[in-house]
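Appendix B, Record 12. Input sequence as logged:
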Amino acid sequence: MSRKNIKRSRNISKPKEVNPNSMKFVNLSGYEIPEVKEYSRNDWVDYGDNNDYFSELIERYLGSPTNSRCINGIVDMIYGRGLNATDSTEKPEMFGKMKSILKPNDVKRIVNDLKMLGQAAIQVVYKAGKREISGLYHFPMETLRAEKAKEGRVKGYYYHPDWSNIKPNDKPKRIPSFKNGSRSEKVEIYCVKPYRAGFYYYSPVDYQGCLQYCSLEEEVSNYHLNNIKNGLQPSLLLNFNNGIPTDDIQELIERKIYDKFSVSSNAGRFILAFNESAESQSSVEPIHLPDAHAQYDFLAKESREKIMIGHGVVSPILLGIKDNTGFGNNAEELRTASILMDNIVIRPFQTLLIDAFKELLSFNGIFLELYFTTLQPIEFTELDNIATKIKREEETGEKLSSEEVDLIESEEVTGSEPTEEE
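Logged structural output:
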């Protein structure tokens, strides 16, 4: 072997260096709780990354059918047939004043915000002199941001119609919180929110843990919709093997082909490739996902189940969702599911709202035993455990006749149940 050949054989090519810029890593985003941020330049406290967390909750409501149905159904259960009082007959004047101050439409909207956004705002409007409340109205919670606490209290809220698009020169309007306004300020804000550990200014929604599944259900539906609109896959590959033209020429060719072949009735899409020659032409290799229908069916069912768990739905059929799991159509099972959901999901919301309404109404000297008239059928209420007129009215939502009142009162006095003859 000549020296020349030996020298060539020794010239071992170095391994090609990998360009780090050519390697891309995909980071799977993890679910994060809403951030509460305080900036020194602002007098209010931000809620969410871009101060638009309430908007994100509304988007999850609009995009996820299961989440939307759960929220609507639970709101209807909380509100029932409206706000009432067990002592309305004994205190008709107070009851009439309550009805004039607190309208049913406002109560329903307050209930809706409390469930969907985790908290609700009540606009308190005073009469002249600020010694009496003239009206209690719903105020959109998504338009409010809490003021930074002073002396351990939130003494005001700032209003802006669209916090996600607020401009540097915008000046949100400050509204004092309840009992923290001056004598001249006739409007205040009362915020209804449950206690959540780790949160002071805002309260996360009770279904916080299933929000990622709401997004998943939304994305699965978007994927199927776009897949159908795009004809499930590209249907045409056009190869131009006479060299690669300039970008302007490529755009012109693509536009002309699109105008000719891609009309609204054409579900398919085309792939346009420019090649130096036929030997270097592009090729399309479809990627088939095995058992794709089964995987998407699993994601849809998993999302729906986790969303209902997040909302505390005991039986989906109570909300008009047909499901083959859980409680069936048996009347006794439905009755048990209805009572259980009423006690562990609906009553806590109602108690929170009633306590807030009582505090506000007491400013006008109105003291009533409030309750929400239930939507449950009488057959589903716990009549066996009712011992007094008040409890019976709260459970059934129906006013008792004078004969029934006398009968129940006689039972309370004697401590015995009436016989069949009685």
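DSSP finds eleven helices and twelve strands in the chain.
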